[in-house]
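Reference record:
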Amino acid sequence: MVNKTIEQESINMHEEMRRAFSLLSGKWKLEIMWLLNQRIYRFGELRKAIPGVTQHMLTTQLRELEADGLVSRTIYPEVPPRVEYAITEKARGLGPTMEALTLWWQQYGHTLPERKIGRGRNSIKV
């Protein structure tokens, strides 16, 4: 008699979640993803929408998100060139998580202490 039981490889969910968290870790990545979940943005619009982010850091974070397949970058052949950033279908799967975070914040955000984000004159209280 042949054993027809297929042994499933053991999945270490802790390691898998660490991989997931690393995709979204970074000071600005979640904020970028949240904004792009709302609509398509141009680089300058994103920079204005995120107080305290530097041009270098925004570029770095967008490149990493693009490399991970969470953000798409479209360059239009115009003068000057227009570049737009959008969330990918893969990243749209995070929509329910973002909605849950929004609901959590609406319920508990007022109970958390305010703290400054950013540096210098551009710092804001959240």
